[in-house]
Amino acid sequence: MGHTLFGALGLFSLNILLYCGHAQDVPQPVLTVSPSWTSPGDSVTLTCSVEPPSAGWRFFWYKAVPDMSSTYNYYTFKLLAGGTTGTEQDSYILHGQTHTAGYKCRAGRGDPVSYTQYSGVKFVWSGGVNPAASLTVSPHRLQHFSTESLSLICEGNSTEWRVMKVDEDGYVSSCSYWGEMTGSTCNTTRASSGVYWCESETQFSNAANITIHNPEEAASSSVFLVPLVVGLVSGVLLIILLLLFLRRYRKSEASSLSRSQRANQSAATDHMINQDESSLTYSVVQFKHLKKKEKHDEPDESPVYSDVRIPSAADDVTYVQVHPPTGKKSNEGKSRCVVEEETVYSEVKPRTSDE
Predict the structure, then answer these.
(1) Which of the four pLDDT bands, split at 50, 70 and 90, describes residue 271?
(2) Keyword tRNA-binding: yes or no (predicted)?
(3) What is the pTM of this model?
(4) For a designed S-S bond to 154, which of 10, 111, 126, 161 qualifies (C-beta 3.0 to 4.6 A apart)?
(5) What are 218-234's pLDDT values in tens digits?
């Protein structure tokens, strides 16, 4: 009996080893979707890559169908229309994508066909509202703190719902792991950043990309942002002050230039006036003690001396001063006419070369 039990255990272990070795030899393709977020009516391209690349593969495409009865395997997979024989191309185009959906792929070759493993599930997200299935987030925003309570509400044409999430590492989980599902509402205080949506056996809702912040991280970010904002504001104010100073300097420079021009014009005008004045020649004649006789207007017999001063080279004005004789004769019995001293200026034009 003991030998029989020992033999059975050995055979079971051998089968496990053989299965594990065979699984390691079977490649697992990688599925990518583009774009991952769509608007209603967009086309989506699925690409299935097998490593290492080799010829002869045919590719099979599957759509995820929610399995509400399973706790761990959330989906079964159904071949897409026309995919029973597979495609030679490693890509598949979905036309008119209207809502959130999940997809898988695998490849096969040979006769009989030898298949690869299934790829991981990839989702195409749609933010558009689907009347048959919709998700509402409360509080109604996409930014939340980890200390807040979050409610995810499912509505649509179904009596059984579950809320699903794909986190930043690509791990798929349901509300039962990080919250509590009550009817069609998931309540949680342990939400993490990721994409959330509702699903029933036949429907996927719109998706919401929710970001959860840690209060301590938010505080440290604020501490970093405060000096950054202060530095930016200070830089802007400095630039404004420099611009104002430059503008004031230019105005001052323009004013100084204007004053200098006016001063030069004034100096030029004065110079012209001085030149006009310096070109005049004056003759100063001074008569003293001129007398009249009763019968004859004859000058005194004494000679008249004229004092003529020749101007210097620096002075263009010529002065002529004439002094009458100072000697006096008494004429008794005659009336005396005395002419008061008076200085007479006469403008004398200098002789030109034409005269």
Answers:
(1) low
(2) no
(3) 0.56
(4) 161
(5) 445 555 566 777 888 88
Buried b (16+ CB within 10 A) or exposed e, 3-40: eeeeeeeeeeeeeeeeeeeeeeeebebebebeeeebee
Q: How many Å apart are CA 181 and CA 200, to the nearest integer?
A: 14
Give the pair of three-digit tokens for residue 142. Answer: 């996409």
DSSP H helices, the chain, are 2-25, 175-178, 215-278
Task: Answer positive or negative: Cα dihedral of 26, 84, 76, 94.
Answer: positive
> How many angstroms separate the CA atoms of 265 and 278, rounded?
20
Residue 299, SS3 per DSSP: coil
Q: In this structure, are residues 111 and 134 in contact, taking their beta carbons and an 8 Å threshold? A: no
- Nearest CA-CA partner of 291 in 262, 248, 325: 325
How many Å is the maximal CA-CA distance in the chain? 198
Q: Would you say how long the chain is, in residues?
A: 355
* 163 in Cβ contact with 180 (< 8 Å): no
Q: Which two tokens stand for residue 97?
A: 């994508």
**Residue 214 and residue 203: Cα distance in Å, rounded?**
33
Span 128-152, pLDDT tens digits = 888 889 999 999 999 988 889 999 9
Q: Which two tokens stand for residue 120?
A: 């991981």
Both structure tokens of 9 = 């255990």
CA 289 to chain centre: 99
